[in-house]
């Protein structure tokens, strides 16, 4: 994203004359776009259909919001970035490049902000559920979560339009880095320290009690612990995908030799694509870690017409037979 505010000339295409490099990025980008779009579409469809009516809780709305942001990112931003890499590979000028840059920039900045802020909201909701379980239902309501989601998107869109002002690119980039990475990292670290302390305290209290009335409490703790682990995995993906670009953008402005290095710019371009990886992986994390998402997905599959299910199962069976005969 370092050249997002440049003019018609493509800065990276001009300095990196390596067709194999751009073709590899284009192929990887298209695959990532399809994975992100399909996986998040399936997750959103599962939450929307919700055969068991188990996704009408505040945390589920936050997960749906995160998935919606990642779906938008995969279907628009990741696809357009990969398409631009195709033009770079062909050494061709992308038509309406200013429009494409504006769309990519707006979608990337807004969806990344929504994703990081939603993860913060999920973490704080998790902390409140563990530390204040009695007040949780009356405080963390669906209405308040919906209002929070609206505010998150409004703030994200307003921030994405900052480059249209007279703010210098360097200043805005630093604002972007600290609002999208530094502040979320600090808040998430502080929140999870509190979450682990509260979870350890409640677990200790539950272990000390063997009364029948405490069985429900222990069951809730196991469920909360499972959700904590799930969010931690999502959070880890957030750190892994954000930190590389965070470092390279700082080096771009603080290290003069880095800005003059072709190798550094190649690394910078590759690491900028890391920002999109978590969007493709997050839905699989929920399917892996949260049983109710797996059950809901199976229920949604059963709702499909019989001929569609039959074709899917036939394709799956044929694939398994080919894999076995190939020795894979």
TrEMBL record:
<feature type="transmembrane region" description="Helical">
    <location>
        <begin position="60"/>
        <end position="83"/>
    </location>
</feature>
<keyword id="KW-1133">Transmembrane helix</keyword>
<dbReference type="Pfam" id="PF00001">
    <property type="entry name" value="7tm_1"/>
</dbReference>
<keyword id="KW-0297">G-protein coupled receptor</keyword>
<feature type="transmembrane region" description="Helical">
    <location>
        <begin position="227"/>
        <end position="247"/>
    </location>
</feature>
<feature type="transmembrane region" description="Helical">
    <location>
        <begin position="21"/>
        <end position="48"/>
    </location>
</feature>
<keyword id="KW-0472">Membrane</keyword>
<keyword id="KW-0807">Transducer</keyword>
<feature type="transmembrane region" description="Helical">
    <location>
        <begin position="267"/>
        <end position="288"/>
    </location>
</feature>
<keyword id="KW-1003">Cell membrane</keyword>
<dbReference type="InterPro" id="IPR017452">
    <property type="entry name" value="GPCR_Rhodpsn_7TM"/>
</dbReference>
<keyword id="KW-0325">Glycoprotein</keyword>
<feature type="transmembrane region" description="Helical">
    <location>
        <begin position="150"/>
        <end position="168"/>
    </location>
</feature>
<dbReference type="InterPro" id="IPR000276">
    <property type="entry name" value="GPCR_Rhodpsn"/>
</dbReference>
<protein>
    <recommendedName>
        <fullName>G-protein coupled receptors family 1 profile domain-containing protein</fullName>
    </recommendedName>
</protein>
<feature type="domain" description="G-protein coupled receptors family 1 profile">
    <location>
        <begin position="39"/>
        <end position="286"/>
    </location>
</feature>
<keyword id="KW-0812">Transmembrane</keyword>
<keyword id="KW-0675">Receptor</keyword>
<feature type="transmembrane region" description="Helical">
    <location>
        <begin position="103"/>
        <end position="130"/>
    </location>
</feature>
<feature type="transmembrane region" description="Helical">
    <location>
        <begin position="174"/>
        <end position="193"/>
    </location>
</feature>
């Amino acid at each position: 994203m370092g050249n997002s505010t440049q003019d018609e000339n493509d800065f990276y295409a001009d300095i990196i004359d390596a067709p194999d490099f751009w073709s590899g990025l284009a192929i990887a980008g298209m695959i990532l776009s399809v994975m992100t779009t399909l996986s998040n579409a399936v997750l959103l469809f599962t939450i929307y259909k919700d055969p068991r009516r188990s996704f009408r809780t505040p945390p589920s709305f936050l997960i749906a919001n995160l998935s919606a942001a990642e779906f938008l990112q995969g279907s628009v931003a990741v696809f357009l970035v990969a398409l631009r890499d195709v033009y770079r590979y062909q050494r061709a000028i992308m038509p309406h490049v200013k429009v494409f840059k504006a769309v990519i920039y707006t979608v990337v900045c807004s969806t990344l902000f929504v994703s990081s802020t939603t993860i913060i909201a999920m973490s704080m909701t998790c902390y409140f559920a563990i530390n204040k379980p009695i007040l949780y239902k009356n405080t963390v309501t669906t209405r308040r979560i919906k209002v929070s989601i609206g505010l998150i998107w409004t703030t994200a869109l307003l921030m994405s339009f900052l480059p249209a002002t007279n703010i210098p690119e360097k200043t805005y980039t630093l604002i972007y880095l600290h609002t999208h990475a530094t502040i979320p990292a600090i808040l998430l670290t502080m929140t999870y320290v509190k979450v682990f302390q509260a979870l350890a305290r409640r677990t200790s209290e539950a272990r000390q009690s063997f009364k029948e009335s405490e069985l429900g409490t222990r069951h809730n703790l196991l469920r909360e612990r499972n959700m904590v682990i799930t969010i931690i995995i999502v959070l880890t993906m957030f750190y892994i995908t954000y930190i590389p670009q965070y470092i390279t953008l700082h080096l771009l402005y603080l290290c003069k030799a880095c800005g003059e290095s072709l190798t550094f710019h190649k690394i910078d371009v590759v690491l900028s694509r890391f920002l999109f990886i978590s969007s493709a992986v997050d839905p699989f994390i929920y399917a892996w870690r949260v049983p109710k998402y797996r059950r809901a997905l199976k229920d949604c599959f059963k709702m499909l017409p019989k001929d569609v299910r039959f074709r899917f199962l036939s394709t799956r069976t044929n694939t398994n037979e080919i894999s076995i005969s190939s020795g894979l």
